[in-house]
Design brief:
The chain is of the alpha+beta class. Helix content is 64%, strand content 12%. It is built from eleven helices and seven strands. It has helices spanning 2-25, 34-44, 54-70, 79-92, 96-116, 120-200, 208-238, 255-264, 282-302, 331-335, 341-351, and strands at 268-274, 279-281, 307-315, 318-325, 355-360, 366-373, 379-381. A five-stranded mixed β-sheet has the order 1-3-4-6-5, with helices on one face. It has a two-stranded antiparallel sheet with strand order 2-7. A hairpin with a 5-residue loop joins strand 5 and strand 6. The protein is elongated.
Length: 382
């Protein structure tokens, strides 16, 4: 549409210039007639395809303008179409050499043809305008290329930052998983050690079955202790050898803690749990807690809502989570770049084989939905 308007404007301006110069110049140039109008129209027509074929458009305009000048019509009337063609060659040509060659061809033809009419000054002025249009096109092209490069660099930096944050979240998940496993293994180690010690104190400890059971319990104690050390070593590697002792990982059994945190920030939280089993795998419980925690934090920081809903339901072997707020975003939140909370939550969900989505909800607020698989291992009370 823009090219159509540009072609029509170029034709109309050429007609106006031709009739104006005819009125001013009098008998110095040939009068504008139907042939002149047709040639001006033929010069503007190729501009319709200027973005697709910039160099052929320049050559087509040049080919039509040459007989126009040879017939000694008002020469300046061709400038609108020629200026647009020169600008287009510099702006849209994929390779610069053909564009420079096209400009040279235009100047080489226009300059002698117009100069032969007895107006060398006008010929030089016309070539000067062509050069200005050409270099204006180059300037616009370089500016657009620079903007695209800056945008690509910023996007790459953001992608790298997202990947870094996701990697940090995965390390944190590993630390939380370590706490969950370490707790279970420590309990198993203590119980096995105590049971083995009690068996060793029995009067009948020399019986073969009791000796075998005692050996098994001692082996279980040693294995669990060694596994704890290996877990710690893996966690040290993930933290670059600088891992600090961590607190027990929070899980869904502590959901009331998040509710109280939100209510302290003047956001009432309604918890709806349907069909939720009394036990969940520890990893799923920890990830679900963190997703709800980040979602409620986002409600407090970025939403004007005074109420949020947390829905939990278990459908077969999947735990479904939804955190919904009921208010529009704060004005300042819409003007700041998106953070990395959603990327972190998505990484957590994917780390346990689940999925997460986030976006505007039907209530006019924001909704975070997650679906996590529930395998039959490592269950903790909720």
């Amino acid at each position: 549409m823009a090219d159509r308007l540009l072609a029509a404007g170029s034709f109309a301006l050429g007609i106006v210039v031709a009739f104006t110069l005819e009125a001013v110049a009098g008998e110095d140039e040939r009068s504008v007639d139907m042939w002149a109008i047709m040639l001006l129209g033929a010069m503007s027509a190729p501009l319709l395809a200027r973005r697709r074929w910039p160099i052929p458009v320049v050559l087509a305009v040049l080919a039509v303008s040459t007989p126009y000048h040879l017939l000694d019509y008002p020469h300046e009337a061709t400038m609108p179409a020629l200026l647009v063609a020169a600008f287009t060659a510099a702006r849209y040509s994929e390779r610069p050499r053909p564009a420079y060659a096209a400009l040279v061809a235009v100047a080489a033809v226009i300059l002698p043809v117009v100069a032969a009419s007895g107006a060398p000054g006008n010929a030089l002025l016309g070539v000067g305008w062509l050069l200005m249009a050409f270099f204006a096109g180059l300037a616009v092209r370089f500016h657009q290329a620079w903007k695209a490069a800056v945008a690509a660099r910023l996007e790459q930096e953001r992608t790298d930052e997202v990947e870094r944050r996701v990697a940090e979240e995965r390390v944190l998940i590993a630390a939380e998983l370590h706490d969950v496993l370490a707790h279970g293994l420590a309990v198993a180690n203590v119980q096995a050690s105590v049971a083995a010690h009690l068996i060793d104190q029995l009067p009948m400890r020399q019986d073969a079955p009791l000796q075998e059971l005692s050996g098994t319990l001692h082996s279980l104690s040693d294995t669990s202790r060694a596994t704890l050390h290996e877990l710690r070593a893996v966690l040290d590697v993930l933290h670059g050898g600088e891992a600090e002792p961590t607190e027990p990982a929070h899980h869904l059994g502590e959901l009331q803690r998040l509710v109280e945190m939100a209510e302290a920030a003047d956001v009432r939280v309604d918890v709806e749990s349907d069909g939720l089993s009394h036990e969940l795998p520890a990893t799923v419980s920890v990830v679900a807690y963190r997703i709800i925690q980040e979602s409620l934090t986002n409600v407090i920081r970025h939403s004007t809502a005074k109420r949020a809903t947390v829905r939990l339901d278990q459908d077969g072997h999947r735990l479904r989570i939804a955190v919904i707020d009921h208010g529009p975003a704060r004005p300042e939140s819409t003007m700041t770049p998106a953070g990395f909370g959603i990327a972190g939550m998505t990484g957590r969900a994917q780390a346990v084989g689940g999925e997460l989505s986030a976006g505007p909800g039907e209530s006019g607020g924001f909704e975070v939905s997650a679906s996590l698989p529930v395998p039959e291992i490592w269950r903790v009370p909720v």
